C-alpha cells in the first residue's frame, strides 16, 4: 500500500520519470540551496533523497532572490542515454512582473555529473521538455502576461496566458522554429505546470490550474497533433480537492503521469495537509501519487473514481510497506553536510558554515540578519511531521546584541521563531526569542521574553523545540542540566504557506535548524555540537 504523501514536508511540483525499474521524482526548492530535490524509489512506496543537482555557482546563484523565488517546477526526463532537468529561476515575483528564466541541465546518471545550464527562454515559468518518439524535442512553459491585474500574492486569470510550445534543438542548444500557444486552459483559469504524455497516437497535456491554493487542480486535454487543437477532458479535472473541503489531502494539483513496467498508471501531484480546524499547512506543499486507469473513452481517471485524491493507494505488485519514521541525529563528524540540510540562496557555503574549522561541530559564521535575501548563516532541514522535537547544543560567546545564534523554526523573513543566545548591556550573555509573526511586508520583530534571560558567560547551551501541531515550546539547559521551558507557547501554525501574506504568496514550507547572525560585520562564529530531529 502507498501512503500519501510519499514525500512529506516541503516537496512541491513533482515531476516523475521511470528508467527501467527505477523511479525518480524532482521537486521545487525555491530559495533553498542546493537547487532541486531528486528522490528515488523502486516501488513507488518508499523514497530516498539522492541528489540536489544544482550545487555550484556556475549552475545557480540565488543571492538577492526574494522569498519564494528561486527554483520553480523542475521537470525531470530521460532520453538519449541522459537525464534532462529543466527548471525556472525566478528573480522577481512581486507586482505585475515575473522575471523567470528557464534552463536545461543534463547528466549521464542521476548522480551526475550535471552540466552547466543552457539558457532557454524567459517567457514564463513551469517548463517541461517532451521527447517525442520521432526524436524531436519540444519545450513547453506557461506564458506570463504582465499587462493584467494579476500581482504577486493575488493571481488573476489573464496573467496566466496559456501554454507555449517550441521545438528544442539539443545539438544547437536552443529553441528553433515558431512559438505557438497551444492551450489556453479551462474556465477554471491560472493554467501552468504543463506536461505531455503520448499514448495510442494521442498527445495528452496535463496542466495545473486554479492557483496553488485550495482551488488547485490537475486539468487534462488531448490532441492528435502535438501543437493542437486540444480538447478538454470530459470531467475537465483529473485530480482536485477544490470541491471537497473535508478531504485530508487539500490543494491537490500539478503533477505528471508515469507508467510502471507492467503497464500500471500513476499520477503524481502536490497537496497539503492543513492542521485540523486551521486552514494552515506548516508542512507546505507535499508530494502524493494516485493510481489511475484509462477508460474505454481513452481518458485517464483516478482508479477510485472521482477527482478527489486518496491517502491510501494500491501499490504495484511486490512493493514493500511504508517505512516507519525514525529519529535522525547528526554529529557533524565528517567533512560534508548531511543531505537532510539546506541553506539559503548562496552558492558559496564556505562563507556561512564550516565542518572542518572545529571538527565534530557545525560552525556557523554570523553574517547578515535572519531573513536576509543575500548571505545569512542558516542551516536547516524540512519539518516532515506535525509533531516533532528538535535539539542542539551551541557554544557561542557574543559580545554585542548584534550577535545571535541558536535554534530556529523558519519559513521566510516574515514567518519564524528564533531561540537565540545573544548579549544585552548590563546582563551579558542572555537568551531571547525573536519572532516575526507573519508581518508581510514590514517584517516587524516580536520578542517572546519581556526581559532577556541571563545564562552566564560560559558553558555550552542546549536548545530544544517541541512542536505539537500549532503549538511550539522552546526549552534550554546549561551543559547536562535539566531542561527548562523558556518563553510562552508560540504559534507554530504561522510557519506555514497560508499565514502572513497568504496561500498565493508563499510557496515553501517549515524548516527547523540552526542560525547565526552578526550585523556588526565581525563574523562571530557559533559552534553546534549536534542536531537531532525526532518525530513524535
Question: How would you sum up this structure, described in words?
Answer:
InterPro entries: ConA-like_dom_sf, GH43_C2, Glyco_hydro_43, Glyco_hydro_beta-prop_sf, Glycosyl_Hydrlase_43. Keywords: Glycosidase, Hydrolase. It is a single chain. The protein has strands at 2-3, 15-19, 22-27, 32-33, 37-41, 48-51, 70-79, 82-92, 99-107, 118-121, 128-131, 137-144, 160-169, 174-183, 192-199, 202-209, 217-223, 231-240, 250-253, 257-259, 265-272, 286-294, 300-302, 312-313, 328-330, 343-344, 353-354, 362-365, 377-382, 387-395, 403-412, 415-424, 428-437, 445-447, 453-454, 461-468, 471-478, 484-491, 511-518, 525-535. By secondary structure, the chain is mostly beta strands. β36 and β37 (471-478) form a beta hairpin. Strands 25, 27, 28, 30, 36, 37, 38 and 40 form an eight-stranded antiparallel sheet that branches. Strands 29, 31, 32, 33, 34, 35 and 39 form a seven-stranded antiparallel sheet that branches. It has no helices and 40 strands. It is globular.
How much beta, percentage-wise? over 45%
Which ranges are low-confidence, i.e. pLDDT below 50, for 5 or more consecutive residues?
none
| Chain-averaged pLDDT | 97
Q: Gyration radius, to the nearest Å?
A: 23 Å
Helix segment count? 0
Q: What is the approximate shape?
A: globular
Count of DSSP E strands? Answer: 40
> What is the straight-line distance between the termini?
22 Å
InterPro entries: ConA-like_dom_sf, GH43_C2, Glyco_hydro_43, Glyco_hydro_beta-prop_sf, Glycosyl_Hydrlase_43
Organism: Aquibium pacificus
GO molecular function, one term: hydrolase activity
Pfam families: GH43_C2, Glyco_hydro_43
